[in-house]
Amino acid sequence: MPETSYMERPRTRGRGLAHNLVDDFGARIRDGGLRPGDKLPTESEIMTAFGVSRTVVREALSKLQAAGLVETHHGVGTFVMQQRTSTVFRLDAGDIATSVDVLAVLELRISLETESAGLAAIRRTEEQLQAMRQALDDFERNVGVAGDTVAPDFRFHLQIAQSTGNPYFADIMSHLGTTIIPRTRISAIRNHDRGGAYLSRVNREHEEIYAAIARRDSESARAAMRIHLTNSRERLRTAQEAAQAADRAAEKTPPAQPLPTTTARKS
After folding, report:
1. Which residues make beta-bridge pairs with 72?
2. pLDDT of amino acid 6
């Protein structure tokens, strides 16, 4: 039976548009309709085929990436990844992107990445250290120009996991994907960050982790990672509380009263 063309797919309507796209492409990948190395249609083609906005398409692609189903090469396209026959850890992409408590994920990361940093300080190679340096340079370069800081942020943390020499650390990080970065999902953080102060602090904390790993100081690397992730958790709390306070204040503000109408006096 010939495979249905993307352009012949029924247009998706209603709520959960991004989830519908994830389900559609996920099913194609699992059923073999899309194989490892296959390139997905362009954003514009998906928009036309499914009748959705670019924002919906990008959200869906982000979830597919978080699920470990695809990977995106900027300027080239999005490609299907080789699926592992068995994995040590898996979270549903939709759960990560929508319903999983970000604070709980940060608690998981504190436990996981603290030890990861300590092992990386002992076991990393010079090539791996250089990859961390490149990620941090890309992060810092994009802070000042409002560029993409999420991708280099994730690369830095993933490289540390890979530098442990234990594939399970990297396996968990890869499955979690870039949505472990709180600002990808919590608009309160983006709205709360004025003048890039949030990202500047994140950058300084990254540099402390890198410096400890570079000098092979495992205890300092653990401490720096724990401080960084604990601070991330507290920054998230602060941003959420500020957003909630603003919402409460807006609810208490009485609606504007219409100006009284005037009638012309008769002469």
Report:
1. 78
2. 46
Superfamily designation of domain 101-247: GntR ligand-binding domain-like (1.20.120.530)
Sorted by sequence, the CB contacts under 8 Å of residue 44 that are 6+ apart come out as: none
Is the torsion defined by CA of 240, 244, 247, 253 positive or negative?
A: negative
Q: Convert the pLDDT of each residue in 121-143 to its tens digit.
A: 999 999 999 999 999 998 888 87
d(CA 134, CA 36) in angstroms, rounded, equals: 28
Longest CA–CA separation in the chain, Å: 95
Q: 77 forms bridges with which residues in the sheet?
A: 73
0.90 exceeded by pTM: no
pLDDT, one tens digit per residue, over 224-233 is 999 999 988 8
CB 14, CB 6: distance < 8 Å: no
Q: How far apart are CA 183 and CA 209, in angstroms?
A: 20
| Identity at 74, one-letter amino acid code | H
d(CA 50, CA 267): 66
CATH class of the 9-80 domain in this structure: mainly alpha
Residues 6+ apart with CB under 8 A from 60: 17, 18, 19, 21, 22, 25
Report the alpha-carbon distance of residue 118 to residue 160 in Å, rounded. 9
The strand pairing partners of 79, in sequence order, are: 39, 71
Amino acid, res. 171 = D
Measured from the Cβ of residue 251, the count of other Cβ atoms closer than 10 Å reads: 7
